[in-house]
Amino acid sequence: MFGKMLENVRNTCPLVHNITNYVTVNDCANILLACGGSPIMADDRDEAAEITSICNALNINIGTLNSNTIPSMFLAGRRANELGHPVLLDPVGAGASGLRTDTARKLLEEIRFTCIRGNISEIKTLAAGSGTTKGVDADAADKISEEDLDSAAAYVKKFAAETGAVVVVTGATDIVADSGKAYCIRNGHPMMSRITGTGCQLSAMTAAFLAANTDQPLEAAAAAVCTMGYAGELAHARLSEADGNSSYRNYIIDAVCNMTPEQLEKGAKYEVR
Amino acid sequence: MFGKMLENVRNTCPLVHNITNYVTVNDCANILLACGGSPIMADDRDEAAEITSICNALNINIGTLNSNTIPSMFLAGRRANELGHPVLLDPVGAGASGLRTDTARKLLEEIRFTCIRGNISEIKTLAAGSGTTKGVDADAADKISEEDLDSAAAYVKKFAAETGAVVVVTGATDIVADSGKAYCIRNGHPMMSRITGTGCQLSAMTAAFLAANTDQPLEAAAAAVCTMGYAGELAHARLSEADGNSSYRNYIIDAVCNMTPEQLEKGAKYEVR
Amino acid sequence: MFGKMLENVRNTCPLVHNITNYVTVNDCANILLACGGSPIMADDRDEAAEITSICNALNINIGTLNSNTIPSMFLAGRRANELGHPVLLDPVGAGASGLRTDTARKLLEEIRFTCIRGNISEIKTLAAGSGTTKGVDADAADKISEEDLDSAAAYVKKFAAETGAVVVVTGATDIVADSGKAYCIRNGHPMMSRITGTGCQLSAMTAAFLAANTDQPLEAAAAAVCTMGYAGELAHARLSEADGNSSYRNYIIDAVCNMTPEQLEKGAKYEVR
């Protein structure tokens, strides 16, 4: 099923509007191209809504939010809602500053999100105000262990029910859930956390999967998570002794670029809880 | 002749002022260094004109234009005109939003451009208001086929005559024309469209070629287009089975870095129409 | 000793707040992760001070400063001073525009910097108003030769005494000095100047070293300089014939990622003057 979803991205080449941070934006654009989508970045309020209207999905990432781009997030989000486009929120660093937490919360109040993707600290911040975000990475205190997986899945399902969104919590084990069903995904490699922006890249790519598979947002998001994680495994297997995190970054995008639907179908490691 | 033009870039190390988007800016800087130029990025209105005055060329790219950077484009453009510096316009996404189309048109009215580089949809938008831009990529309906090449060359020459600029339309076959002469260039590889920013990179590099070869802007632009396209061929030949678009991006810049004037002379594939 | 300092970065994983340019920001983030630190980028005035307060060091880089980010530099700098966090200034392009020179000078007046890192032209601009900055690179007229090394070291020590900061001047030979002692470092490779942002990356990494070794800022900065330079040597040795500046960029970050304290200890090439 996940293979078919990747195939749908390749066949429909969804155009994804990204209002995102300037740190990882180039990698977001290249991974969108790698998976078969097409990126456009536009964050000025004088064009944000118009650009969204010619796109197939909207990816809002608050990684380097500022007073110019925040209004654009709302303008584009509302327009995307009107048009019925999938909209994704990546609440980068929610909990690390009042501006980030407040902006993410207001976005959740005013915009209907198809999907919310963050680490556990960011999601906890939004769900309960209890996350302890350490910069843009999840805090150790929030980490999900194998023993906690059932309760974590229940927690994510509950937040999904409250928001009406598919919620993606990425970590050692990723959880992708709507109100009724949770995919626990075991693809990926620990070294992915030594690259900046694997989360941002996943969010951008998830928006493309949502656009190409509008009738199954839960499975579309899970397929994107498996694609990213499995690419992380394939890329890691390719590392030479001299390669480090910078080459690894390139290899992950390369692996997405070369991934076939059949490969993904075989490589995806998940269970439903 | 094109080899000599690359050599001139290497020998004079032109400093290129870029007011450009934050998506592909790092690759623009690295390809400028690769070809033998030197980059500086500065987009605040309080320094845009001053920075331009110490540079040898100006590259204006509207890829992520906003209310802060648009005035800087005009300020720098006017100063570069006063100083007789080559100025290039890359109208990224013209046709995709009113802000982009209007800004590009106003720039064309107020600034004298040495060169305008875009895909066919962007150029059609500027020339006739008829382009059907799909995001930042050319629309299929606008694509130039081999049969249409003569009429396309005539079209590009006409726009060149109207603007007084060398016009570069990149696609499967690239057209580089002034009012009287068109180079049709067949370097490049289709996979280049799976990397973000090959167009932006070409624009930045073209500005360096224009600065190093001020007496022959048409040939300078054509030489830059051949350099980029031929680098795309060399880089493609180098791809291993596991390499994808991210490694390809690196290899293209590498190929520009290592390209000798002799190699370019031999590898350039063009005809004049 | 320098090996121990790298080990301290790896063991404490300092979170570095970067207010930096959008050209090289991704490489800054990846090199921070490579050395064992953690990056966060935030430049809006509504969160700059708050973000700094949860971090271990602040890196201010004026590479693409603008009217929105300049106030954030002051707000974050003051807060970091209040909290006793290490603060680093990278005065990119000081001397190239009044805005850059003035902003760097005002920052020096109002903020207490632990470290200032620039090329010789930028440092001369700040120290005496006499630098002749060519864009963002040092001007040939300012270059330090082997014969001038003693007087250059004295010059850097004097500026260090005036500012109370450790001053790092990077070039063919790097000088890292406080008021009493100068490390002259001979790591590195000339090809590093063909990559955009090796200076910015070094500044970001130096902030992490300062945070992990607060009691020895001079040695911490020298250790960071040796790490970057030695990584440049290791990465250069790894270049294949087809590799150019883009692959070289990746290999340098890779080399930092893989560098062990023992390797650094052996590879560091310096003398004290």
Name the biggest interface. A-B, 35 and 35 residues
How are strands sequenced across the largest beta sheet of chain A? 2-1-3-4-5-6-7-8-9
Structural class of chain A: alpha/beta
CATH architectural category of chain A: 3-Layer(aba) Sandwich
Low-confidence stretches of chain A: none
Quaternary state, please?
homotrimer
Q: What topology does this entry show?
A:
The structure is a homotrimer of 273-residue chains.
Chain A: H1 2-12, E1 15-19, H2 25-35, E2 38-41, H3 48-53, E3 57-61, H4 69-83, E4 87-90, H5 98-110, E5 115-119, H6 120-128, H7 149-163, E6 166-170, E7 174-177, E8 182-185, H8 198-212, H9 217-237, H10 245-258, H11 261-267, E9 270-272
Parallel strand pairs in A: 1-2, 1-3, 3-4, 4-5, 5-6
Antiparallel strand pairs in A: 6-7, 7-8, 8-9
Helix pairs in contact in A: 1-8, 1-9, 1-11, 2-8, 2-10, 8-9, 9-10
Report on the structure:
The structure is a homotrimer of 273-residue chains. In chain A, α2 runs parallel beside α8 (198-212) and α2 packs parallel to α10 (245-258). The first copy, chain A, has one domain (2-272): Ribokinase (UDP-N-acetylmuramoyl-L-alanine:D-glutamate ligase, 3-Layer(aba) Sandwich), CATH 3.40.1190. The first copy, chain A, has 273 residues and is α/β, with parallel strands linked by helices. Chain A is built from eleven helices and nine strands. Chains in contact: A-B, A-C, B-C.
